[in-house]
Design a protein that fits this description.
This protein is of the alpha+beta class and 154 residues long. It has a single domain, classed as Roll (Diaminopimelate Epimerase, Chain A, domain 1). It is built from five helices and three strands; from the N terminus they run αβαββααα. It has a three-stranded mixed β-sheet, with helices on both faces. A hairpin with a 4-residue loop joins β2 and β3. α1 packs parallel to α5 and α4 runs antiparallel to α5. It is globular. The two termini are 31 Å apart.
Amino acid sequence: MTRALETTSHDTSTETTAAARTDENIDRPDRVFSYRELARLDEALTMSSRETGLFFNLYVGDLGKRTRSRAEELHATSKADPSDSVLIAVSPGQRVVEVVTGASAARRLPDRACALAVLSMTSSFAAGDLVGGLVNGLRQLSDQAGRPPVRRHH
């Protein structure tokens, strides 16, 4: 089971360094995620990829009119091998979640498992928890995919 590690942050800013803090977006309304949220997402992505051998990617933003096509384009342009990749694309403004799996990843993540992860994510999104929904979706998908298959040399 994937578990995200959470630690308590210790604020060490002073009057001189407080303006340089990057973990809060109070003065940056254009920033979608705070530093802590990005760290939490990075941890979930790293753990999911490490535990499964698949390459998990997240995209949060507008997907245009043809959401599935755009998500498939993003998946195809991933730096990792698309066959072993999984993209979770979320467009909050459009209220759309697309999960795109490569051929190899699809054998370990059937449509039903992806649909359950999307259902879990959208429940969190409806409650206003975008990051929590993404983290839980990654956990569910990585739990379903399991460990990478062992390749035996004959």
